[in-house]
Automatic annotation (TrEMBL):
Lineage: Eukaryota, Fungi, Dikarya, Ascomycota, Pezizomycotina
Residue span, Large ribosomal subunit protein eL24-related N-terminal domain: 1-66
This protein's UniProt keywords: Ribonucleoprotein, Ribosomal protein
Biased composition (Polar residues): 139-150
Pfam families reported for this sequence: Ribosomal_L24e (PF01246)
Superkingdom, taxonomy of origin: Eukaryota
A Gene Ontology term for the protein's cellular component: ribosome
Entry keyword Ribosomal protein: yes
Protein name: 60S ribosomal protein L24
Length: 161
């Protein structure tokens, strides 16, 4: 006993039932009833007709008893070391008392500020040195253009017309 599937609806066709349609290119189509044959001949898309197997499969209808609901994975928290500090140092700082932590932070900030101030002082001294050297050189040299003082190339006078 051979059972065929309906070409349009996807339902089963038992022996003695259904219609057979052979197209001009010899392709065989089997239909359960006139309804599915008519819709096929109207070139309807079975995925858009709600009672067909293709529609139900596409829209996931009637499969709840087969497949249980998917379980979502729980996120696992893990700690990783940051570039500047290892995991041990991070844990140690977390377990510190707030007062001790604040004191350490203040000490670090003051150290950073003092380093910055020192670097600024050195920078100012360099600038003053350059300015005094430039002032001495300015007296000797002729007046220079703004672009020339910035380091632009000197324009060569043309010697042809």
């Amino acid at each position: 006993m051979r059972i065929y599937d309906d070409t349009f609806s996807g339902q089963k066709i038992y022996p003695g039932k259904g219609k057979l349609f052979v197209r001009g290119d010899s392709k065989v189509f089997r239909f359960q009833n006139g309804k599915s044959e008519s819709l096929f001949l109207q070139r309807k898309n079975p995925r858009r007709i709600s009672w067909t197997v293709l529609f139900r499969r596409q829209h996931r209808k009637g499969i709840s008893e087969e497949v249980a609901k998917k379980r979502s994975r729980r996120t696992v928290k893990s700690q990783r070391a940051i570039v500047g500090a290892s995991l041990d140092v991070i844990k140690e700082r977390r377990s510190m008392r707030p007062e001790a932590r604040a004191a350490q932070r203040a000490a670090n900030l003051s150290e950073i500020k003092s380093k910055k101030a020192e670097a600024e002082k050195i920078k100012k001294a360099e600038k003053a040195k350059k300015a005094s050297a430039a002032a001495k050189g300015q007296a000797q040299r002729s007046i220079q253009s703004k672009q020339g003082s910035k380091g632009a190339q000197v324009r060569v006078a043309a010697n042809t017309r």
